[in-house]
Amino acid sequence: MAPRSSSRERILEAAEKVAIEVGVGHLTLEAVATKAGISKGGLLYHFGTKEALLKGMIDRHMDEEAQRIAETHAELGGTPGTYLRAFVDSMMQANGKDLHTPAVSRSFLAAAANSPGLLERPRTVFAEHFERLRASGGHFPLAAIVSLALDGLYFGDIFEFSTLTPTEREQLTAELLKLADRASLPPA
Q: Taking the CB of residue 56, how many other CB atoms lie within 10 A of it?
C-alpha cells in the first residue's frame, strides 16, 4: 500500500470525527473541511465527492483492521492455523471503538444502501477471509461458525439488540477463542 499524504490523512481523521459526532448521514464536505482545517477546495482535491470520501474512510478503516489482524497473527506465530485466533482477538479488541460504534456503523450501512459501490471492498475482504479459513488446513465449518458468530455479535451491537453483560461477553469471547483453536486443527 502506498503511503498517504498527510493532508489526506488529516481529512480522513476529520471525517471520522464528524461521523462519530453526527453520523455519516449528516456528514458534509464542508463540516469535514472545517474540522480538518482546510478549504473545501483542498478537500475536493483529495476526495472529489462525498462518496469518494466515504470510500476513503472505509478503505482506511479496513486497512487499519487488516494491519491489526496481521500484527496479532504475527504475534501468534503467523501460521495458517493461527489466523482465525488472530481474527477473533482483533475483532473483539476493536468492538465498540471509533468507527465500530453502533451509530457510526449504522450510518455506514445506510450510506452503503444508497451507494452499493461502497460495499465493493468489504465484499472482497470478506471473500478473502473465507478463503484463508478454507486454506488454513483446519476444520473449515467450525472456523466459519466462529467467524459468523463474530458477525452476529457485531450486528447485534450495531443495532443495539445485544443484552449481553460484560461478563457474558467475556465468556463468549473465551469460548470463541477455544473454538478458534479447535478449528485450527484438521477435522477428525
A: 18
Q: How far is CA 23 from CA 8, 18, 98, 111, in A?
A: 20, 7, 12, 10
pTM recorded for the entire structure:
0.82
Cα 12 to the chain's mean position, in Å?
Answer: 15
pLDDT higher at 3 or 65: 65
Question: Other CB atoms closer than 10 Å to residue 102's CB: what's the count?
Answer: 15
Residue entry with cell 465527492: 49
Determine the average pLDDT of the residues in 79-89: 92
8 Å CB contact between 24 and 113: no
Classify residue 76 as exposed, middle or buried by CB count within 10 Å of its CB (0-12, 13-18, 19+).
middle
Query: Residues 70, 76, 81, 86: is their CA dihedral positive or negative?
Result: negative
Distance CA 76, CA 10 (A): 33
Question: How confident is the prediction for the chain on average, in pLDDT?
Answer: 87
SS3 at position 101: coil
Residue 8: is it exposed, middle or buried by C-beta count within 10 angstroms (0-12/13-18/19+)? middle
Closest CA to 73 of 34, 22, 129: 129
Per DSSP, the residues of 159-187 read: TT-----HHHHHHHHHHHHHHHHHHTSPP
Query: Is the distance from CB of 104 to CB of 19 less than 8 angstroms?
Result: yes
